[in-house]
Design a protein that fits this description.
With 210 residues, the protein is α/β, with parallel strands linked by helices. The protein is built from one helix and eleven strands; from the N terminus they run H-E-E-E-E-E-E-E-E-E-E-E. The strands form three sheets. It has a seven-stranded mixed β-sheet, with helices on one face. Strand 1 and strand 2 form a beta hairpin. The structure holds 2-acetamido-2-deoxy-beta-D-glucopyranose (5 copies).
């Protein structure tokens, strides 16, 4: 009896050691792949971007980890890109729809550039987004109503752009919103009364529109 018991405990031990190896490998592979996607997205964005000074993103080298790049921050635990700051780099052109692939992004700072075109709808795929600052650009078109999907949003700063249309009522579904700045655009219509439901809202700026 004793040797059989001994054997089975050994088997169980071997089983657990094998399991943890497999789990560990799967874990490492999935993390690497995801950070790899973040890297590919950022390299693509860089390829579409001319900055002032021109070497502002020189550290964005495909042979290093994006967590080591300037203006990029990562989550220590998951090793995913959580912050991108492209503010004040004299960037013109469109905000690329590829931005929606940075699925762990919590902070996106594009303010104080010369971005044109519309807010890409893919921005509403960034479900962890907390801070979205695109103020002081030349962004046109309407505010995507589906921004209300980004339920973690704390800061929405669209000040001083060329946004038109009305303020989507769905924005008032953003229950965590603390700052909403839509001042200095071309918005018109009424302020959705349900904005009063946003109990976390501390700053609301809508001045100088239309
Ligand atoms: C990131 O930077 C650290 C410190 O400078 C360096 O030791 C490490 O090798 C770099 N990692 C990658 C993947 O570039
Ligand atoms: C990133 O997003 C774009 C447009 O939204 C898509 O066409 C592309 O395949 C995506 N790339 C990756 C690496 O997922
Ligand atoms: C957004 O960026 C502008 C320009 O740099 C800055 O003045 C403003 O304080 C930022 N908004 C928030 C809510 O932090
Ligand atoms: C907004 O989200 C809804 C459902 O969540 C989807 O059916 C619709 O296509 C989205 N709108 C746009 C413009 O992507
Ligand atoms: C939000 O406000 C509107 C109008 O002020 C009200 O009719 C509605 O019931 C409120 N919704 C919630 C979820 O509190």
């Amino acid at each position: 009896m004793a040797p059989i018991l001994h054997l089975s405990i050994l088997h169980i031990l071997i089983f657990f050691v094998l399991c943890s190896c497999i789990l560990h490998n799967t874990y490492v592979t999935s993390v690497t792949l995801s950070l790899e996607t973040d890297k590919q997205t950022l390299i693509y964005l860089k390829s579409q971007t001319i900055t002032q000074p021109p070497d502002a993103l020189v550290t964005w080298d495909p042979n290093s980890s994006p967590c080591n790049w300037t203006r990029v921050s990562c989550d220590d635990r998951r090793q995913r890109v959580v912050g991108v700051d492209l503010s004040s780099l004299g960037i013109s052109g469109q905000v690329s729809p590829h931005i929606g692939n940075l699925s762990f992004l919590t902070t996106l700072q594009l303010q104080d550039n010369r971005f044109q075109g519309i807010i890409p709808e893919t921005i509403t795929d960034l479900l962890r987004l907390r801070v979205l600052n695109i103020s002081f650009n030349s962004i046109q078109g309407t505010i995507p109503a589906n921004l209300s999907h980004c339920i973690e949003l704390r800061v929405v700063d669209f000040m001083q752009n060329e946004l038109s249309g009305s303020i989507p009522e769905d924005l008032t579904l953003l229950v965590n919103l603390q700052t909403l700045n839509l001042a200095g655009n071309r918005l018109y219509g009424s302020i959705p009364p349900s904005i009063g439901n946003l109990s976390s809202l501390l700053t609301l700026k809508l001045g100088t529109n239309n």
